[in-house]
Design brief:
20 helices, TIM Barrel, alpha/beta
Length: 479
């Protein structure tokens, strides 16, 4: 390893020799090599703390993965426990990222000690541009950092499930709703589908006025920025809000206004799919469609069919989707998440949908898989969500996305409910690498597929921009 400059606040040769020795130790440690491959990096760190904490994090992640792998597939408690493990592993990976990104004060005393006894130093390290490095065995942290840096798109998101805790608390406060910290956190501790539904309703209960939707869009945009998601298509489910007295047109006006402001601010692009909802029946779905058709906002691009799959078969909504398509709206549907392949077939045959959310049960029908391959209807894969609901998938490594991809079915990666499942899009991609043996090249293929699965008006331009950025990121991360 070559450093062109190491500048200390103390110029003592012994201090420099000890520090260089420490650098060699750190470089030897698994997971820290990437820190010293970054160019022109200025850091202030206490290295003993970094080494100790990262060693503990790596140990804990390995132990959690081992314990998780031993969970039985056929137990009712398995999916809930798997989600708990996933959340903890995600938190540890996030902490590891934060440690590597932060400037940490108070270095070892042997570097320099001021009169008041406080140790201070600054390291400026520069690696020559011509230096060549090899990284034949990237760590999980290397891969995670690389994925997070990649530009991404996402098309299967629910607005309520993108509201972070801080925003939700502010909404409760603004609307005069008092709730204790204990009661608030209790809603986020759940182990089954019913608990998830209760949390979803809890989030919706915070919405009392049209301006609340501006906060919700801000939270969505923050989620996107934190994970380098450049474009998203998000589901907005209006039925419950309308039942609670919210005017649909005013609600959408607020949402669209904030979306436009965000795009103007930093280029983050968001479009809306209105969930007509199978849960409340065909008449309600048609009413929601008619509300959408009265809007003049280009950001509202289509409709989706969400809700309880077993309560509302897709074929019952044929007239709704036929009218939507005749009016030029884009159409998507949740299918094969909680029901068998027939739900997907009905979505194709009766609703003529352009994308299918989840599609997990398609693997049970080889003819359906072949049709999906030939038709190239995109499947919106939501790995963590599918493992949590546990209807067809109990563990990540058993998800059919690997078979879909290998057989040529069009797949794109999404989170579904990121703030509820405590998962990021980057971690969803990482799981593809970690549990399903997707290579770096295949991950990039999935990102490209993600772009062309969107309803963006200029997909070629988006991919061209992404491709240029991805090449730079791969070179930087040596992957």
């Amino acid at each position: 390893m070559s450093y062109t400059s190491i500048i200390f606040s103390s110029q003592k040769k012994k201090s420099r020799k000890k520090f260089e020795s420490l650098l060699q130790i750190i470089d030897y440690k698994k997971g820290l090599k990437k820190v010293y491959l970054l160019r022109k990096l200025v850091v202030k760190v206490k290295f003993e703390q970094i080494l100790n904490r990262i060693a503990v994090i790596d140990r804990d992640i390995n132990e959690l993965n081992k314990i998780k792998s031993q969970l039985p597939d056929d137990r009712p408690y398995s999916s809930g426990l798997q989600l708990i493990f996933d959340k903890q592993i995600t938190n540890l990976l996030n902490e590891r990222n934060i440690i590597l990104d932060q400037k940490i004060p108070n270095p070892p005393a042997w570097l320099h000690t001021t009169k008041n006894g406080q140790a201070k130093y600054e390291v400026i390290q520069t690696i020559p541009a011509e230096t060549e490095f090899t990284n034949t065995e990237p760590t999980d942290q290397d891969i995670m950092s690389f994925i997070k840096a990649l530009p991404k798109t996402e098309v299967h998101l629910h607005l309520e499930a993108c509201v972070n805790k801080q925003t939700l608390k502010q909404m409760f406060k603004n609307n005069g709703i008092k709730i204790s910290e204990e009661e608030f956190e209790k809603h986020y501790t759940f182990h089954d589908l019913n608990g998830f539904i209760q949390l979803f309703l809890f989030i919706q209960s915070a919405v009392k006025s049209h301006k609340d939707f501006s906060y919700m869009i801000d939270s969505l945009a923050e989620y996107m920025r934190n994970d380098n998601i450049k474009y998203s298509e998000v589901f907005v489910a209006p039925t419950k809000f309308i039942q609670n007295g919210i005017d649909f047109e005013k609600m959408m006006d607020v949402i669209v206004k904030r979306i436009r402001e965000i795009k103007q601010e930093d280029g983050t692009e968001i479009n809306i799919l209105v969930d007509v909802s199978r849960t409340f029946g065909q008449e309600n779905a048609m009413n929601n469609l008619n509300r959408v058709l009265k809007l003049k906002h280009p950001e509202v691009i289509g409709i989706g069919l969400g809700g309880a799959e077993q309560m509302g078969p897709a074929k019952d909504f044929e007239t709704v989707f036929k009218k939507a398509k005749e009016e030029g709206l884009r159409t998507v549907v949740h299918a094969g998440e909680d029901e068998g392949p027939i739900s997907i077939w009905d979505s194709i045959n009766y609703l003529k949908v352009e994308r299918i959310g989840h599609g997990t049960s398609a693997i049970q029908d080889p003819d359906l898989v072949e049709y999906l391959r030939e038709s190239q209807i995109p499947i919106e894969i939501c790995l963590t969500s599918n493992v949590f609901t546990g209807k067809y998938v109990k563990k990540e490594e058993n998800h059919p996305v690997r078979q879909y991809f290998d057989q040529g079915v069009y797949t794109c990666i999404n989170t579904d409910d990121p703030e509820i499942f405590d998962v990021s899009l980057s971690y969803e991609y990482f799981k593809m690498y970690r549990f399903l043996n997707f290579s770096i090249e295949e991950l990039i293929q999935l990102i490209k597929k993600g772009i062309y699965a969107t309803f963006h008006q200029d997909k070629d331009a988006v991919w061209k921009k992404f491709e240029t950025e991805i090449l730079k990121i791969r070179k930087k991360h040596n992957l």
